[in-house]
Design goal:
single chain, five-stranded mixed sheet, 20% strand, binds adenosine-5'-diphosphate
Length: 217
Amino acid sequence: ADVAHELRTPLSNIRGYLEAIRDQVMKPDAATIHSLNEEASLLSRLINELQELSLAEAGELKLVYQAEDVIELASQAVILWQPQLKSKDISLSLDLPDNLQLVSIDWQRVSQVIHNLLENAMAHTGRGGTITVAASKQGSWVEISVSDTGEGIPAQDLPNIFERFYRVDRSRARATGGSGLGLTIVRRLVEAHGGIITVQSELGKGSCFSFTLPIAE
Ligand code: ADP
């Protein structure tokens, strides 16, 4: 039922625009076409993410485990975000020790986790804020964290943040094109590696998402 609801929303918006154009209530100008395109993009993002989530939940993601260097992984992820960080005047701080053991992971999937956490941190951090990516050894695990000095998450929402389609501010999240599936997929990917993901957050101060990955034998 929730999937049907989420898919129906952008579809009704698209139909709304098309009917308004047909009835000549709206002009098919650049702004209208832009809005139509935004709704269609959200729809395809939802479909792609739902497909990925259903594979993950069925345990059917084909993960290719190799011994990888977390420092290199985190550094590469961060480089891709430099232009956006700069344009939003957000500074990035890396806290990565240089003698960390290799971890047994699927490189592409863990990159996806870091990208998603960075994307969220950027979306919820204002100009002049800071995002920190840190890694440390915790027993037989390496813990990676992405923290921000952004808006934070209300305490009552924290227990639900990894649930599918859960968004703290639905109207704002929709405006930014969020599907509400990002963190659900992130959690599944971390769990597929045997790790766990946790969040700590304080309203008005920022959030910190941390996840663990197994050290390679
Ligand atoms: P979305 O597609 O809406 O970003 P997510 O599953 O990635 O969906 O995140 C769910 C909700 O968690 C977001 O809508 C947002 O309200 C909140 N959230 C996620 N990351 C952060 C963060 N770093 N700071 C504040 N709120 C966050």
